[in-house]
Amino acid sequence: MKKVIITFIGISIFLVSCTSDKEQPLPVGCTSTIYFAKDVKPIIDAACVGCHFAGAGIGDFAVFSELKAKVDNGSFKNRVFVLKDMPSPSTPLTADELGKLNCWVEQGAPNN
Ligand code: HEC
Asked: How far is CA 34 from CA 37, 55, 77, in A?
């Protein structure tokens, strides 16, 4: 009986440690992990930093924490996906770029 209990505890610990090592599931509609450095930063640099630079007073998006602050307070989502006025409607992002930004935001906007 002791052996059975010890084996059971062993299996339980094994299972728990396996599940906690598992990666976070991807957000709905996202097929792969989006990386800030590789996928998001080039879009932000090209489409936003021309206006959102240091000293402009509207957030310096070359600085991760300033961009992240707009994601955290909801204004990024609101302007880019709801109002769609950032960047200006005359220079819209492509569907691919919007998809990457959306998946990055839904992943919790990590600095990965
Ligand atoms: C042509 C210049 C220009 C470009 C390009 C631009 N922005 Fe803006 N953005 C502004 C200005 C000016 C404001 C402040 C006035 C306002 O809120 O409309 C602003 C405001 C914002 C705000 C609201 C900030 C707040 O604190 O409420 C967000 C979020 C934002 N922009 C995100 C972006 C993102 C993301 C991009 C690139 C995809 C982008 N912007 C590109 C000029 C620009």
From this structure: 9, 29, 16
Lookup: tokens for 43 = 């879009």
Write out pLDDT tens, residues 52-91: 999 999 999 999 999 999 999 999 999 999 999 999 999 9
Cis peptide before 87 (omega within 30 of 0): yes
* % pLDDT > 90, the chain: 78
58 lines ligand 1 (CB under 6 A): yes
Q: How far is the CA of 16 from the centre of ligand 1 (A)?
A: 44
| CA distance readout (Å), 80 to 21, 59, 64, 85 | 33, 15, 17, 6
